[in-house]
Amino acid sequence: MKKKNIYILLIILLNSFFYYTYANDLSIKTNIDWWEFDKVIEVNLISNNKNAKIFYYIDWEWRIDNQIEYKTPIIIKKDTILNYYAFLDARNSTLIEEKKYKFNYPENFNISYKDNKINIINKNWTTINIWYWKIEADNINYEIYKNTFIKNNNKYILDYKAKEQEKIIFISPDNKVKIQYKIPKQNIIVKEIKKIEINEKTKLTNYTDTINPKNTEINKDNNKIIVNQINSFNSKNETKNIEKNNFDINKNLKSSIIDTNNDKNNIKFIYVIVLVFLLWIIYKIILILDKKWIIKLK
Predict the structure, then answer these.
(1) Cross-sheet strand order for the sheet of 155-159
(2) Residue 86 confidence (pLDDT)
(3) CA 196, CA 127: separation in Å to the nearest integer?
(4) Which secondary structure element, helix H or strand E, spans residue 227, and what is its range?
(5) What are phi and psi of 86, to 5 degrees?
(6) H or E stretch including 281?
(7) All domains of the chain, ordered by start, with CATH?
(8) Is residue 228 within 8 Å of residue 219, measured between CB atoms?
(9) Which pTM value belongs to this model?
(10) How far, in Å, CA of 161 to CA of 146, rounded?
């Protein structure tokens, strides 16, 4: 009986020893330590026991209902506090560990638009991974879903048919960096103005001027015809006022109206003059003939 009790005690001691050793061997670690990042990261949680389950939660206090079982790498895009632990059974789990990840995305990008293509140009000194950056415009919300590296002064190109003055925005994964570009109006060169229409009844005709602005708008402003010239290099508006013979719209609108009836009246007046002239010639001829007949009769 004593031997049996000794065997049982020995077995309990051995089990306790192996359990203690086994429990203290269970551990967990990450592939990425704390750091400040300029790109999206993938965090792997690794346990030394392949049978252990791994759980994690992000940015909130731990509770059973908000923890997530780790299956695939965790994609982290913004400032995050990551908590995690490994669990084997009720008596064997690791302590909850914590990692803090901070992000500082680069801002030195240029945007251009040409030939129905959006160009994102990297002006940073180093190669930048724009994975999970977004490109937004009126009819597009495009997220870059794979590792995409742009070297210094190289560009990422996206096909997109945009409108004049449409705004294109390049947004970092944490939505803190937003680089904007507004598509300008088409470059118009106004070489000759033959007719400027002010309204349905009023027109200014036969005026010629040579202008070479980057962008040109023709407007009616008070009593002048105005050609707005927009210089895209210094973003200042330059205005050229064009007037013909001190043309005053408000004071003399009627004089600028093209009236087809006046043309008809002028033609009629010419016909009358020609007719009177012909009648005068006929009258002179008759007088001459009358004189000849009188001489003959005498």
Answers:
(1) 109-114, 117-122, 155-159
(2) 96
(3) 53
(4) strand 224-231
(5) -110, 145
(6) helix 260-297
(7) 27-103 (2.60.40.10), 109-182 (2.60.40), 195-256 (no CATH)
(8) yes
(9) 0.55
(10) 23
